[in-house]
Q: What sequence folds into this?
């Protein structure tokens, strides 16, 4: 008995793409029934709420097609219903969640052993780690750096693994680092990117606050980091000077979507983010704070921690005197004014 072979051709049907200027149709349901017949099946309504396709009611329709009768609901788009957005978690609620985690990590029996390992990896003194409440979090297999608001509320924990990978604990909200370690007043307050530069600045003897890096500041506006810094300066004397330490992370950006001119570029977000983002932060803070704000770049080193490691390895005991002699803050960056 001969068997016939039947060949099937499988055709994948792709959903039609919505072109610009065309409306999309939404199926009705029990929560949003048809505005023409009141049923919750078969019918469709345009996404802007101006038209409906109802296969049941023909009266009042201006067009008929295989999809049903077309009804004009409004000449102008109807306001779409607002989504049920959950309320924003307050900083106090985040503090009630993350502060016990920080206290538990500090109270562990092997806390000092974790500090010693971080001191060996970063090259910073252990007392700076203890002052900023940095600890080892075994559940994440990383060191945790608590980030706070200007008032000291812990809103998140940034993590740094032994290999240098960085991430945050789920649910964290980025904030400032080193607020709790700033005990006495000073004439100059330094702002640096990241937590490790704060540890190096404390080792030198500077008053330093860290903020999340690569936070671009829109023109005339402040990001969350900028708002937290502005809140920190409220109530501070007008004679306090703010000095932002930029990063010498200039590089040649490559790739198919890079428009940077390369080595001749004076500095852009692609080839020199540590300059562009900090200049934007400086310009934004000057509009919102009463204190003077400047930005400096350290000579021949990438950031403040690199400066600390360089002069510490050279045998300089009084690093603060070496810093004062370098007079970094007296030569502010004047580019991109």
A:
């Amino acid at each position: 008995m001969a068997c016939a072979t039947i060949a099937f051709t499988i055709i994948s049907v792709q959903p039609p793409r919505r072109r610009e200027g065309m409306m999309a149709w939404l199926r009705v349901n029990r929560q949003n029934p048809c505005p023409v017949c009141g049923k919750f099946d078969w019918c469709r309504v345009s996404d802007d709420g101006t038209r409906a396709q109802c296969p049941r009611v023909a009266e009042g329709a201006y067009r008929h097609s295989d999809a049903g009768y077309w009804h004009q609901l409004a000449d102008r788009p109807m306001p779409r219903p607002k989504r049920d957005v959950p309320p924003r978690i307050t900083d106090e609620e985040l503090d009630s969640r993350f502060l016990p985690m920080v206290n538990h990590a500090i109270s562990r029996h092997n806390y000092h052993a974790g500090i010693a390992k971080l001191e060996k990896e970063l090259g910073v003194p252990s007392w700076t780690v203890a002052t900023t409440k940095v600890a080892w979090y075994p559940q994440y297999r990383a060191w945790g750096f608590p980030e706070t608001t200007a008032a000291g509320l812990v809103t998140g924990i940034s993590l740094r693994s032994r290999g240098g990978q960085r991430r945050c604990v789920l649910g964290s909200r980025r904030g400032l680092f080193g607020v709790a370690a700033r005990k006495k007043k000073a004439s100059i307050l330094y702002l640096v990117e990241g937590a490790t530069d704060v540890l190096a600045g404390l080792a030198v003897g500077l008053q330093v606050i860290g903020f999340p890096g690569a936070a671009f500041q829109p023109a005339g506006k402040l990001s969350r980091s900028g708002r937290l810094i502005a809140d920190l300066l409220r109530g501070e004397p007008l004679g306090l000077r703010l000095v932002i330490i930029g990063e010498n992370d200039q590089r040649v950006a490559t790739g198919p979507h890079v428009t940077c001119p390369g080595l001749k570029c004076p500095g852009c977000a692609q080839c020199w983010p540590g300059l562009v983002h900090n200049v934007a932060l400086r310009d934004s803070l000057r509009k919102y704070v009463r204190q003077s704000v400047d930005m400096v770049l350290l000579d021949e080193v990438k950031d403040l921690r690199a400066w600390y490691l360089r002069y510490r390895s050279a045998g300089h005991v009084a690093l603060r005197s070496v810093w004062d002699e370098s007079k970094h803050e007296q030569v502010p960056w004047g580019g991109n004014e």
User: Anything to note?
Assistant: Residues 8-21 have pLDDT under 50 and may be disordered. The chain has two domains: 25-72, 91-252+259-330.
